[in-house]
Design goal:
By secondary structure, the protein is α+β, with helices and mostly antiparallel strands. It has 8 helices and 10 strands. The N and C termini lie far apart (41 Å).
């Protein structure tokens, strides 16, 4: 696997920043056996631009698409989505009097600033005999990225609020600071967790596969037969459309992201 880095650098950027940037890129490349193969560097009149292109190949039998989910499939996610969004909130909010454990807050900042790519987990999945019917990573928000699977597979989804994974520390922090953890989990992006579907008969296999893993893998819902209709079953039993939790849209317009 190869990585190419292209930079547009204004005069205002110090050399130390560039040194630290490449140290970080090199460290990640070494950790995941990726070769930093080149790129391009040019002057920029005002803004700093960083563009990274990754090149690799995959065996056809290991190729996981967004288009294979079918009604009755179970929906799973790795890790604990929402932590990166909480870290961003801590970074950008004007509020300074956050209640709760400072170590937990530092961990949330780390989740946003230094996310862990789930390469080990995806290798474990593709090397197993479990049939993963569809997959995407959570970059723009769990609800929005789930919609991409629904759109490409021609299906819908039912998620259950009480199944959404979160640590006791996050539950306590959100309660103390009057934050809605469900909003963070479903709308927050840049977690880079794996969101995937599989047949119901393989649920026990997936639980066994990740039994000793440091990364939790959690069933959060089920695929439905109604195309592009996504709903959340709340803890109190009420049903809420998941479009209310749609995350970041790079090309947001006045039109809804998917029809009601």
């Amino acid at each position: 696997h190869l990585a190419f880095v292209s930079l547009g650098i204004p005069k205002s950027v110090p050399v130390k920043f560039l040194d630290d940037l490449y140290k970080g890129i090199n460290q990640v490349c070494m950790e995941h056996k990726i070769e930093l193969a080149g790129g391009d560097t040019t002057a920029s009149p005002r803004h700093l631009f960083i563009n990274i292109t990754m090149v690799g190949d995959v065996n056809k039998e290991h190729l996981l698409l967004r288009s294979g989910a079918r009604p009755g499939d179970k929906i799973f996610v790795t890790g604990t989505p929402g932590q990166s969004a909480l870290g961003l909130k801590l970074l950008t909010s004007r509020r300074k009097n956050w209640q709760g454990n400072p170590k937990f807050q530092k961990k949330m900042l780390q989740a946003h600033l230094d996310p862990v790519p789930r390469l080990l987990e995806v290798k474990k999945l593709v090397n197993s005999r479990i049939k993963i019917t569809s997959m995407i990573d959570v970059s723009d928000g769990l609800a929005q990225d789930l919609f991409h699977i629904c759109e490409n597979s021609g299906i819908g989804a039912v998620l259950r609020e009480e199944w959404l994974p979160q640590t006791p520390e996050m539950t306590a922090f959100c309660s103390l600071n009057r934050l809605n953890s469900t909003d963070l989990i479903l709308s927050g992006g840049e977690d880079y967790e794996l969101l995937f579907t599989l047949k119901s008969e393989d649920v026990r296999k997936i639980e066994k596969l990740f039994h000793d893993s440091k990364t939790p893998v959690t069933q959060i819902g089920e695929v439905s037969a109604q195309p592009e209709k996504m709903v959340l079953v709340k803890s109190d039993g009420t049903i809420k459309p998941l479009q209310e939790f749609m995350g970041f849209n790079h090309f947001k317009s006045k039109e809804p992201l998917f029809p009601r």
